[in-house]
């Protein structure tokens, strides 16, 4: 029972006891007073009648006189006894009372003492007269007084209740805010509230606010440490873009992972004659030129949903853009921006750009060689030249053909889930990673996502694809009770049909829902926080889990994670690869895991290939790993 209800109950019991006691005492007092008055009246009536009857002295005449008096007067009982105590006359009236309920008359039960008087016949004792006056009028008066008292006390009780409601309402608001603040902490959200006027609650609220501020400061400090070590491990110290090792790891994952795009653009940007610039401009100004180039490149590609920019060496920058239709457009945009940046610069500064198309499964060495060859041709042409090698286009079909192909693949019922284990430190399976496979035209086995997911995004079929994957996972969980993780595309969160259909699936498979883990790509999810919170709330209401995959690049600010209410985070392989050999990578992973554990999230590592990396990750405190190093 809540505190407010307990206070209400206490107040109600107090009012009932107070007013009930007061009403009962007043009624008992009135009853006793009336009984005393009627007893006295009975005695007076008996004496008066005895004086009248004594004038004749004969019992027979007395009896006739009493009979007439009983009919005329308000008596309940009259009795005349002779000298030997034998009854001569006895009359009793009906106890009915007009306007007074019978239960009230029985409950009050006025019992006055009958009046007694001796009758004399001259000097001799003639008999005894007993008189019991009627209590009808007393009961009527007592009933009226009781109703007036009850009405007055009920009115006073309502007034006191209204006053109590006002006081409790004044207490409830700050209490409710404090409860909401505590609830927000359980949901990993930091909320401060205004201090109430009530001294005791003010102290409680002040203490809660201080605690929230300290926790927030602690998490901010941890986030700062995570960002520091991320830059140390993954960023070029001069320009802030990815260093060569991190960029190469990201490129390798895009080429090999079936969950990334089927193809895209690789651009190499070279700032010309870097050694000559160092001599002519000086080292400080040359460093500024490189920083300007990096910022200009980031501005150019910043509109893309997914991209990676890295510095490969002193003068060369690289850009990876998944799912681009044209190589020329991004390459020419970078060239135009750099030309505008350095226009009029003396001594002159120039750059050249080489662009090639990449596709899933392409050898990285061959791809880099082709990009370097295009860059060399651009250098031969002169400042701000752009060379394109578009020979790798593998998406020859149009959107309509792809849309029909994907719909057919989804409707045939041959879609399947692959299964890869995610294990904990004891090699126990936490859940199975289950990417979707679709049977495409001309393929004997279902194709991995890299072959069709980019076109599913382009044809806006990701929600249908994800719902098929969720349904297959729920049915598989029902068969073997093994938890399974399914990817949801960030684009699916924008589809208005996803939430109601996903809710219907979870309700239809309620027994399997606790074993379902839903994963959303980090970058896309954090850009759609309202939709992500809606997904988390809907999933949690049905005991499913929601988390981020391919994470680690945008976790320097924990506020978004706190607000989202997630259950777990899976670190991208580019964040953890080589952790056993690189101290900065290890420090970054340690800080990241501590921060995520501090806000109550489980932390897993994706694509762990090296046993040494796996051992380093266990030491860092991760809760599980996937990849070649994971064994069921």
From TrEMBL:
SUPFAM superfamilies: EAL domain-like (SSF141868), Nucleotide cyclase (SSF55073)
Domain annotation EAL: ranges: 399-632
Record domain HAMP: where: 169-220
Domain GGDEF: 262-391
One protein family per Pfam: LapD_MoxY_N
Protein name per UniProt: EAL domain-containing protein
Taxonomic source organism: Ideonella oryzae
């Amino acid at each position: 029972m809540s505190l407010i209800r307990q206070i209400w109950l206490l107040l109600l019991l107090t009012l009932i006891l107070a007013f009930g006691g007061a009403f009962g005492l007043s009624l008992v007092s009135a009853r006793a007073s009336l009984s005393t008055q009627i007893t006295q009246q009975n005695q007076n009536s008996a004496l008066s009648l005895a004086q009248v009857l004594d004038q004749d002295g004969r019992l027979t005449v007395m009896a006739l006189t009493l009979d007439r008096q009983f009919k005329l007067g308000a008596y309940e009982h009259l009795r005349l006894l002779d000298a030997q105590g034998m009854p001569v006359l006895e009359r009793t009236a009906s106890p009915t009372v007009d306007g007074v309920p019978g239960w009230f008359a029985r409950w009050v039960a006025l019992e006055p003492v009958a009046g007694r008087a001796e009758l004399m016949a001259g000097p001799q004792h003639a008999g005894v007269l007993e008189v019991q006056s009627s209590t009808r009028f007393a009961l009527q008066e007592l009933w009226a007084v009781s109703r007036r008292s009850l009405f007055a006390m009920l009115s006073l009780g309502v007034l006191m209740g209204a006053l109590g409601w006002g006081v409790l309402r004044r207490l409830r608001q700050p209490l409710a805010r404090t409860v909401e603040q505590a609830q927000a902490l359980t949901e990993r959200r930091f909320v401060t509230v205004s201090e109430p006027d009530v001294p005791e609650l003010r102290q409680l609220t002040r203490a809660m606010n201080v605690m929230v501020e300290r926790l927030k400061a602690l998490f901010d400090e941890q986030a700062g440490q995570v960002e520091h070590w991320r830059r140390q491990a993954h960023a070029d110290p001069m320009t802030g873009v990815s260093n060569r090792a991190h960029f190469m790891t990201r490129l390798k994952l895009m080429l090999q992972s079936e969950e990334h795009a089927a193809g895209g653009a690789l651009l190499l940007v070279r700032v010309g004659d870097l050694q000559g610039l160092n001599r002519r401009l000086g080292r400080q100004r040359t460093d500024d030129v490189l920083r300007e180039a990096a910022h200009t490149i980031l501005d150019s590609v910043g509109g893309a949903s997914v991209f990676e920019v890295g510095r490969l060496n002193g003068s060369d920058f690289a850009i990876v853009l998944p799912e681009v239709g044209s190589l020329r457009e991004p390459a020419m945009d970078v060239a135009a921006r750099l030309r505008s940046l350095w226009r009029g610069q003396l001594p002159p500064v120039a750059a050249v750009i080489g662009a090639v198309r990449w596709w899933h499964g392409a050898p990285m060495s061959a791809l880099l060689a082709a990009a370097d060859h295009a860059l060399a041709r651009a250098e031969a042409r002169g400042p701000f030249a752009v060379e394109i090698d578009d020979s790798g286009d593998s998406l020859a079909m149009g959107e309509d053909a792809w849309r029909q192909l994907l719909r057919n693949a989804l409707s045939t019922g041959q879609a399947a889930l692959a299964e890869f284990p995610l294990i904990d430190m004891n090699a126990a399976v936490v859940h199975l990673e289950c990417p979707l496979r679709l049977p495409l035209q001309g393929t004997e086995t279902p194709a991995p996502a890299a072959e069709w997911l980019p076109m599913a995004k382009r044809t806006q079929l990701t929600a249908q694809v994800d719902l098929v994957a969720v349904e297959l996972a729920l049915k598989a969980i029902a068969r073997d009770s093994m938890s399974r993780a399914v990817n949801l595309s960030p684009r699916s969160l924008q589809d208005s049909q996803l939430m109601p259909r996903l809710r219907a699936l979870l309700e239809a498979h309620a027994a399997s829902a606790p074993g379902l883990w839903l994963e959303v790509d980090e970058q896309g999810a954090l850009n759609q926080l309202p939709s992500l919170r809606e997904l988390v709330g809907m999933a949690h209401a049905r005991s499913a889990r929601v988390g981020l995959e391919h994470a680690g690049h945008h976790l320097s600010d924990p506020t978004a994670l706190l607000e989202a209410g997630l259950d777990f985070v899976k670190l991208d392989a580019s964040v953890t690869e080589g952790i056993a050999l690189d101290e900065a990578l290890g420090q970054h992973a340690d800080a990241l895991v501590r921060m995520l554990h501090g806000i109550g999230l489980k932390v897993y590592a994706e694509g762990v290939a090296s046993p040494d990396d796996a051992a380093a990750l266990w030491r860092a405190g991760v809760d599980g790993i996937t990849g070649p190093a994971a064994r069921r």
